[in-house]
Write a structure and sequence with these properties.
Elements: H1 8-15, E1 27-31, E2 35-41, H2 61-82, E3 92-103, E4 112-123, E5 126-135, E6 138-150
Antiparallel strand pairs: 1-2, 2-4, 3-6, 4-5, 5-6
C-alpha cells in the first residue's frame, strides 16, 4: 500500500475539478493499485446543515455518496496514470449508476468520514467500484457505483 498522503491542494490541482461548496474530499491517506482510502472532515459550518436538520444535524446521504464518488474518481485517475496514460486526458468523471446503496449509521458534525473505494473493472470509459464509508470503524454507508470517464 502506498501511504503517500495526497493533500487538499494536490486533490484540487491534479485530481478533481470540484470546488466549494461541492468538494467533499479533504485528504487521501493511502492507495494501492486497486484501492484508496480518503477522508472527509464533517463540520457544522457546511451549508446543508442549516436545513438538514437545524436541531439535529445529519450529513445527507447524497453527500456521503458524492464523497465516495469523488474518492473513486481520484482512484481512477491514479490507476489511469499507473497504466502510463496521461491523467490530463480525463476531463471529467460522472456518476452513471449506484447499486445496493445502504445507510447504516448517522454521520454528524465533528465526525471524520473515512472513504474507501475498491476498483472492480473498467470497460471503455465506464469504471466500476465497491465503496464504503465509515466513522470510527463503524459502517455508515456501502454502495456499488460506476463512473463515466470523459476524454
Amino acid at each position: 500500500m502506498k501511504t503517500r498522503v495526497i493533500n487538499i491542494d494536490e486533490i484540487r490541482e491534479v485530481y478533481l475539478p470540484h470546488r466549494y461548496p461541492f468538494l467533499f474530499l479533504d485528504k487521501i491517506l493511502s492507495f494501492t493499485e486497486d484501492s484508496i482510502v480518503g477522508v472527509k472532515n464533517v463540520t457544522i459550518n457546511e451549508n446543508f446543515f442549516q436545513g438538514h436538520f437545524p436541531t439535529y444535524p445529519i450529513l445527507p446521504g447524497v453527500v456521503i455518496l458524492e464523497s465516495l464518488a469523488q474518492v473513486s474518481g481520484v482512484l481512477a485517475k491514479l490507476i489511469f496514470d499507473d497504466r502510463g496514460s496521461d491523467i490530463n486526458l480525463i476531463k471529467d468523471c460522472f456518476f452513471t449508476s449506484l447499486d445496493n446503496s445502504k445507510f447504516k449509521a448517522q454521520v454528524r458534525p465533528g465526525d471524520v468520514l473515512t472513504l474507501e473505494s475498491k476498483y472492480i473493472k473498467d470497460k471503455m470509459n465506464l469504471w466500476y467500484f465497491e465503496c464504503k464509508a465509515t466513522v470510527d470503524g463503524k459502517l455508515a454507508c456501502s454502495t456499488s457505483m460506476s463512473l463515466y470517464m470523459s476524454s
